[in-house]
Amino acid sequence: MTKNPPTLSKKDFSSDQEVRWCPGCGDYAILAAMQRTLPEVGAKPETTVFVSGIGCSSRFPYYMSTYGFHTIHGRAPAVATGLKISRPELDVWVITGDGDGLSIGGNHLLHVLRRNVNLQIILFNNQIYGLTKGQYSPTSAVGKVTPSSPVGSIDQPICPARVALGANARFVARGYDVSKQLPDLFKAAYEFRGSAFVEVLQNCPVFNDGVFDLITDRKQGPQHQLWLEDGRPMITADGKKGVRLDPKTLQVEVVTLGEGGVTEDDLLVHDETNATLAWLISDLPEVKALGVLYRDPSAPVYDDAVRAQSEMARQKGGGDIDALLRSGHVWDVT
Amino acid sequence: MQTPTQEVERELRQSVVIRFAGDSGDGMQLTGTQFTTATALMGNDLATFPDFPAEIRAPAGTTYGVSGFQIHFADHDILTPGDEPEVLVAMNPAALKVNLPALVRGGLLIINTGAFTRQNLDKAGYTTNPLEDGSLAPYRVLAIDITALTLASVQDFNLGAKAAGRCKNLWTLGLMFWLFGRSRESTVEWLRRKFAKDPNLAEANVAALNAGHVYGETAELPQGVGIYQVAKAELAPGTYRNVNGNDALAWGLVAGAQLAGLPLFYGSYPITPASTLLHALAKLKSFDVVTFQAEDEIAAVAAAIGASFGGSLGVTGTSGPGVALKTEAIGLAIATELPLVICDVQRGGPSTGLPTKTEQSDLFQAVWGRNGDAPLVVLAAATPGDCFYMGIEAVRLATKYMTPVMLLSDGFIANSAEPWKLPRFSDFEPFPVHHHTGPVEGFHPSLRDPKTYGRVWVKPGTPGLMHRIGGIEKGQDSGNISYDPDNHHAMTKLRAEKVARVADDVPEATLDSGEPGGELVVVGWGSTYGAIRQAVAQVRAKGRNVAHLHLRNLWPLPRGLAALLRGFDQIMVPEMNNGQLDRLLRAELLVDARGFNKIAGQPFRIAELAAEIERRLGVAPSPHANVDVRA
Ligand SMILES: Cc1ncc(C[n+]2csc(CCOP(=O)(O)OP(=O)(O)O)c2C)c(N)n1
Ligand code: SF4
Ligand SMILES: [Mg+2]
C-alpha cells in the first residue's frame, strides 16, 4: 500500500461533524496527526475503521471520515477484535482513554494485546477522567486533588506502557499530543503486524492542565524527552543526559554526560526487540522515554491464526447442512 | 450380534422409565447415553433427563456426588423423561439414598452390592445397611456384586485395578440391554471407535458388556424380576436421530446463517449449561463459522457486535449470569440497530444459583432487563429439536429487523435428548441479506425499510458510504448524534414499534390442543411443553374441556393472544420460576393469568400438573395469583 504515492489528503479523512472538544484540548493535535498520517501511509477512508470506548477521547471516530464505531465504556478492544477477526482486510484502530482502557476496560486491553490481534490501539493518557468532569484516573499521580479526591488521591498510578509490556504487547510506543513525531509513531504502529499499542500523553486544559509540561514544554521539554532510536545510545533531546545501567543492581539511572567522567559509551543502547530493556526504561523518574520502546514483529498474529484454522476446515469440505444433521447415528422409520 | 428378543419370552410393556444412578466417577451419563442410542435404534420413542452434580469430581461415595440419567421409552409418542422411574440402577449407597424416594413402589431396583461397604454406607449417611434392614421390602430387588463380577470379566486383559473397576458401568449396561431387549451393537461399535488407540481397553470394555449380558441370560433372576420388551413406536416416517438442545441450537444457528447468506461469528465465555453450544460450534468451522472464546461475557457479546458491524451474523451464547454481564452491550446493539442473536441457556438463579439445574427464571431479564427503553425480540424453544427451528427463526428476525434477538433455552432442553425427525434443508425458505451498497447520494446510517423499520446495513469497506455509529442517541433523519428532545422521543417510539412489528411476521396465537372457550387453558413456554401437553391430554381424556397454549414468541407476544385467552374461564400458567409469564400476560393483556410454580431445579412432572389442573377445575379460583407446586 505504501508504495503508491499518496493521492488523498488530510481533508479526505476529516468528517463534516463539528469537533466538540474544549478549546486547547490535546485531542485536537492527536486528531490532526492521525488525519495527516493516514493519507501518507496510503490508507483509504472506506477500509479504515475507528472503534472507540467512552470518554472525551472516544469521540474521536465522529471526526474521521472513515467508518467508525463509538461503542461502550472500556469495550472497544473486544468490539474491534470481533470486527478484525471477521474482516481481516480492514484497517482497525482502537481509540481509548486512561480510564476507558485501564480501569473499566483493563481486562479487554490485556487480552487484545496478549492475543496480538492485528490492530492499532491509541491510548489518550490525560491522567484524568475528562468526560465525567475530572475525577482521578488509574494514571493520576498520588495526591491529585479532584472532586472525588478532595484531599488528594491515595491510589497508586500505573504506567500504561508497563501494562502493555506485561500483557505481552509486541509493539509499545509513546508520544505526546503536540509532538511533531506523533505521525511517525502512528505510521510505525500502522505498519506493524500485530497489536500496536501507542500511549499518547494528552493535555486536558480543563481538568488536569499542564501535567505533562515538564516533557512537552518547548523550553524545558528537551531536558526530559528521551527519544529512542534503535541502535542509538539513550540521550535526552537536549543532548545533556543519558540512561545508564548499573550492572550490580540491574537498575537504570539517569546520568549527566561529562559529569563524573560519564561518556556516551557508558549509556545504554536502544534495542527495540529487547523486552527487558523496554521494561527498564518505560517508567524512568526524571525523563520520559518516547518513540518505539518495543517492537517484535516475529510473534504470530491472532487473526492470521483464525484464518488459517478456517482455511484448514474449509479444505476438508463441509457446509452441507443435511450432511451435518445426518452425521452420527440415524435411523429410518418407514 | 443378535438381539435376543426372539429367543425368549418377554413381558410386553408400553413404556418404561429407567434411572441410572451412581457416583460421578461411575460413568452413568455415558451408560445412559449408550442405552439411549440403542433404544433409539430399536425404534422406540424416548426422552431423557441427565441430572448431574455441579462438582466435577465430588468426593467419591457422597450424596452430593451422585449423578443420574433418566430415560423414558415407549411404543407410543412421549414428550417427557417420565414422572417417576420404575427401574432404578443404584451403583452405590449414596445413589440409592438420593434416588430411592423417586422410585415407584414395587419398582425394580438393581443394586451393586460390591459398593455397599461400611465406609460407603457411612458416607451416604446410612446407619444400617438397607440391603439387610428390610427397608427395601416394597421393591423388587436385584442385588448383584457388580464390582466383583466386572473384575472377573476383564481379568484376562491385565488392566490396572482402577481401569478394571471402571468397566462396571458397561457390565451393568450389558445386563440392562438383556433385561430390556436392546442390541449391544451400537455400544460395541462406539467402544471400538472411542478406544481405537487402545484396542485392549476397548475389548476389555466389550468383555464387561458381554459378561453383564450373559449374566442376565443365565442367572436365575429372583421372583418378580422379568425381562421386558417395548415395541416400536408409531413414529411419522422419516430419518431420525437423537439430539440434545445445544447441538440442535448450534445446527439451527449455522443453518440460519446459511439461509441469510452470512458468515457466523460466535463469541462466548464458558458457562454451564451453555458451554456445549460453544463446543458444538467450534467444530463447525467448515460452515463459515468463527468461534471466539472471549475473556468474559462482555467481550464475547462485544466481539459479536463488532462482527455484526463488519457484516457477519454476530451470535453470543451464555446462561443467566452471563446475560447480566452482557446487558449494557445488548443495549448498544439495540441503539445501533445491529443484528445480534443472544442465546440464554437458563439455569437456576439468582447469582451462581444452581448451575447444573434447570429453571426458566430469566424471562423478565430477557424482556425487560436493560437500562433505558430497550426492546428486543424474545423467543423460546420448546424441545431439543425445536432449538433447530428457533435458531433459524432468531437469525431471520435479527437480520430482517436489524435487532438483537434473545433466544431462551434451558438446562433441561440443553442436556436432554429426544429422537428428532430430520428436516430437509431445502425445505427452508432462504432469507438472503443484502448489505446496502448504494446509492451514495442521500445516504445516512439511519435510513430504514419503511415496513420493517430495519436500518440499512452497510459493511465497512464499502466505498462512499463511510459512516459512524454509536450508543449515543442519533437523529432520526441523519444518523448523527442528536440531543434533541423530540428526536429522542421519536427514536424511543421507533425502536419499540420496530420490535412490535415482528408480531405481524410470526404465527398468530393458536392452541396446541383443546378448543377455544373452554373451562381452563394452560399457558406455557420453554421446556415445560411436553409435561403440560401430556397433563392436558390426561385431563381431557377424562372429558374435561381444557386446552394448552404454548408460546414461542415471548416478545412481542403473538397477535390474537388476548382474545383467545379471554375466552377461557381460567388461565393457568405453570412455570419453573416464581411467576414471570403470568405477570407478563397480566401486564400486557389485562387477563387473569394465575401461576403454578415449581422452583426446584427439576422439570414438572405430568402428574403434578394434571392434579393442579383438576384442582382448579374443581374449586373456585384462589384469590392469590400464584400457587406453588409445594404448597
Ligand atoms: C458503564 C459506564 N460507566 C461509567 C461511565 C461514565 N464515564 C464516561 S467516560 C468515563 C471516564 C473517561 O475517562 P477516560 O477514559 O480517561 O477518557 P477521557 O474523557 O479522559 O478522554 C466515565 C467514568 C459510562 N459511560 N459507562
Ligand atoms: S475535558 Fe479535558 S480531555 Fe475532555 S475535551 Fe475538555 S479538555 Fe479535552
Ligand atoms: Mg482520561
Keywords:
heterodimer, A: 334 residues, alpha/beta, 8-stranded mixed β-sheet, two-stranded antiparallel ribbon, 11 strands, B: 631 residues, 7-stranded mixed β-sheet, 6-stranded mixed β-sheet, 19% strand, globular, binds thiamine diphosphate, binds iron/sulfur cluster, binds magnesium ion
Structure description:
The complex is a heterodimer of chains A (334) and B (631). Chain A is α/β, with parallel strands linked by helices and 334 residues long. Helices cover 28% and strands 18% of the residues of chain A. Chain A has helices at residues 27-41, 76-86, 98-104, 106-115, 160-166, 182-191, 213-216, 221-224, 275-281, 302-315, 321-325; strands at residues 48-52, 67-70, 91-97, 120-125, 171-176, 196-201, 225-227, 241-246, 251-256, 288-295, 330-333. Chain A has an eight-stranded mixed sheet, with helices on both faces. In chain A, strands 8-9 form a two-stranded antiparallel ribbon. In chain A, a hairpin with a 4-residue loop joins strand 8 (241-246) and strand 9. In chain A, helix 1 packs across helix 6 (182-191) and helix 3 (98-104) crosses helix 4 (106-115). Chain A is globular, with a radius of gyration of 22 Å. Chain A starts with 26 loop residues before the first helix and ends with a strand. The model of chain A has no long low-confidence stretch (mean pLDDT 96). Chain B is of the alpha/beta class and 631 residues long. Helices cover 35% and strands 19% of the residues of chain B. Chain B contains 20 helices and 23 strands. In chain B, helix 19 (581-589) links the parallel strand 21 and strand 22. In chain B, helix 1 packs parallel to helix 6 (168-179). The two termini of chain B are 52 Å apart. Mean pLDDT of chain B is 94; it is low at 1-6. At the A-B interface, strand 2, helix 2, helix 4, helix 10 and helix 11 of A face helix 1, strand 9, helix 9, helix 11 and helix 12 of B. Strand 11 of chain A pairs antiparallel with strand 9 (238-244) of chain B. Bound molecules: thiamine diphosphate (TPP), iron/sulfur cluster and magnesium ion (MG).
